[in-house]
Amino acid sequence: MENSTQRNAGMEKVKDLIESIRIGMFTTQDEQNRLVSRPMAIMQIDDNGSLWFLTKKQTPKTDQIEKDYHVNVAFAHPDKASYVSVTGTAQEVYDRSKIDEIWSPMAKPWFPQGKEDPELMAIRVDTDTAEYWDSTSSRMVRLFEMARAAVTGDTYKEGENKLVQNK
Q: Would you state the torsion angle of the CA atoms of residues 152, 150, 160, 138, taken in this order, to the nearest 10 degrees?
C-alpha cells in the first residue's frame, strides 16, 4: 500500500508527464454505452490532481458526462515512450473566474470569441487513479533492448510503470 509521500511523488510524475504531452484522448460513453474518444488540450492540472479542459456547453461529450460522469483521459508521447492513463469523474464548471484562470490564447481557434464566449465552459476531471509508463532511455537504447529480448527470449523490461491512487 502506498503512503501519502509516495502518492504525492507519483502524482507529481503524472503531472510532469501530462504537461509535457498536453493533448489527451478524452473518453466518455455514448447513449449506446460505446466508448467515444476525442483529443482535448489540457489547460491546467491543479494541486489536487484534477485535470481542467475548456469546451462548448452543447456538445456530445457534455451530454455524455451528464449521463455518466466516469471518464478516462489517455496521453501518449511515443517518441519519448511516455504514456499516462487517468481515470476519474468529470464535472461541468461554469465559473467565469476559473475559466479566466485557465484560459490560454492557444484556445482561441476553438473559441474565436475568446474567454468571453457565452458557450464556453470548463470540464474538471477529478483523478481517481493514474497509471504511467515512462522510459528514460533513448529510442536507440529501447530498440536495442527490444531486439535483445526478442533474440534471447527474455521479456522486454524498460522504463518505469506505476499506478497512482489519488485518494
A: 110
Does an H or E element contain 77, and which? strand 70-77
19 Cβ contact list (under 8 Å, min separation 6): 42, 45
Range 18-23 average pLDDT: 94
Phi, psi of 2 (to 5 degrees): -90, 145
Q: What is the CATH number of the domain that holds 111?
A: 2.30.110.10
Q: Going by DSSP bridges, is the β-strand pair 51-56/44-45 parallel, antiparallel, or unpaired?
A: antiparallel
Digit-coded pLDDT (tens) for 60-74: 999 999 999 999 999
Which residue segment(s) compose the domain that 76 sits in? 4-165
This prediction's pTM: 0.81
